[in-house]
């Protein structure tokens, strides 16, 4: 009898400890505006939600950019850190706008295969939407195969892309290239080997 009584007391003690730890955890949860969270206070995109479109290999809902079409944006579901609750949703998830590459269905693999095997007839340029260059390559047998070789290099390096300004369809973790452009607001940091260049 004393053994059962002892087990009941132990069970009640452990049950009360679990309840108090849940209450403490609920009291520590803070409700904030999740658009102001700093790096390290959230994970974006949400690791348990599949937000990659299998057709475009970019975030679902990737929209065309205004100035540069290939540099678009998409609304992505993110996850706040533990003990952070978002005002917007009432839970730990929120939406954030992230950069993506807008695509229009042109595959890098197809363009490269066309360039290697049928580039002398200009089919790679026809596929990418450049009918004038494609016709010139067709009439001159790929500029005597030199234009074909040049196009293989340019398409593989992703310098030549689709004519509508979109990006190639490349696997999300594939060999995509991001071009860094310099503008009038780009600041060049002087290097140690620059000796009083005037």
From TrEMBL:
Keywords: Glycoprotein, Membrane, Signal, Transmembrane, Transmembrane helix. It is found in: Membrane. Residues 1-20 form the signal peptide. It is a multi-pass membrane protein. Residues 105-153 form the TM2 domain. GO terms for cellular component: membrane. Its main location: membrane. The chain crosses the membrane at residues 105-123, 135-157. InterPro entries: TM2 (IPR007829), TM2D1-3-like (IPR050932). Belongs to the TM2 family. This is TM2 domain-containing protein. It comes from Arctia plantaginis.
